[in-house]
Amino acid sequence: MLISTPNFDFNAKFPKANGDCFARKGFVDPTGRTDRVFRHSDHKIEMTGAEFRNWAETAAADWGYDVEVSGVGSSSIPSFYPCDDITESPRPIYASQTAIFRIATGMPLRSPRSVRTMQLPFTPSSKESSHPHKLAGRFTLPATAPGIGQRSSPEEVRAKVRDFFTGSSVNEVSLAELWGVLDIAGACGGSKRWLVGSLGGYGDCPALDGNDEDEFEFKVKKVKDVGLAVQWKEWTPRAEEIPRNWGKPVQNGGEHTSHTPAQGW
């Protein structure tokens, strides 16, 4: 993996880099993290050679990588960093710094969750953040509606389905719509096969009561472009549709949760 960033040390090569008027020649750090003046308007970060090398070597050690720090771009008259060891060649001051990360051989890979987070050398700490986060809202969203965890008898399931159709203006609905009623799904313990079996069965799902299909007041059938549907044979039309209990909705905005016992699964 290759990472590169502009070298702030290279700015000394520009005229009047240390003068009072340089701010009018360059561009103030747009992120506000430093009081540095960058050399291009599109730069979001300019690190010194020491900062970049320390960051790269620390990151490589934490994540199990080998790193090679170098750079690209030099002026017509190259400049070099001071070298304390006379046996080593001085390092050039490049316009852009580069770090090549390679996975270290023979080292066990560490999970990213086991590695501590690390800030850039000039990034303010969380206590010094100039843009603190503000909580907009907190919501509790259960994965499923809780239920008693037990299946009701087939007759009890049919009673709940009967109540559903009693308040309806139609005698046939899709199995999916019926399953969306929490009372019905909860009575089946989360099993659609139990629901189909309680209503007389279909296909490889036999009737739970062992009765003949004609003896059931409900019929499960396949409808084109719909899938399985449930029909109540004994349904009679109603002038008005009776409101049904679909469960208590969770309100939006702020933190809300239902304090009443769940009516489904």
TrEMBL record:
<protein>
    <recommendedName>
        <fullName>Small RNA 2'-O-methyltransferase</fullName>
        <ecNumber>2.1.1.386</ecNumber>
    </recommendedName>
</protein>
<keyword id="KW-0694">RNA-binding</keyword>
<dbReference type="GO" id="GO:0005737">
    <property type="term" value="C:cytoplasm"/>
</dbReference>
<keyword id="KW-0943">RNA-mediated gene silencing</keyword>
<feature type="region of interest" description="Disordered">
    <location>
        <begin position="243"/>
        <end position="265"/>
    </location>
</feature>
<dbReference type="GO" id="GO:0046872">
    <property type="term" value="F:metal ion binding"/>
</dbReference>
<dbReference type="GO" id="GO:0005634">
    <property type="term" value="C:nucleus"/>
</dbReference>
<dbReference type="InterPro" id="IPR026610">
    <property type="entry name" value="Hen1"/>
</dbReference>
<keyword id="KW-0949">S-adenosyl-L-methionine</keyword>
<keyword id="KW-0489">Methyltransferase</keyword>
<dbReference type="GO" id="GO:0030422">
    <property type="term" value="P:siRNA processing"/>
</dbReference>
<comment type="similarity">
    <text>Belongs to the methyltransferase superfamily. HEN1 family.</text>
</comment>
<keyword id="KW-0808">Transferase</keyword>
<keyword id="KW-0479">Metal-binding</keyword>
<dbReference type="GO" id="GO:0090486">
    <property type="term" value="F:small RNA 2'-O-methyltransferase activity"/>
</dbReference>
<keyword id="KW-0460">Magnesium</keyword>
<dbReference type="GO" id="GO:0001510">
    <property type="term" value="P:RNA methylation"/>
</dbReference>
<dbReference type="GO" id="GO:0003723">
    <property type="term" value="F:RNA binding"/>
</dbReference>
<dbReference type="InterPro" id="IPR029063">
    <property type="entry name" value="SAM-dependent_MTases_sf"/>
</dbReference>
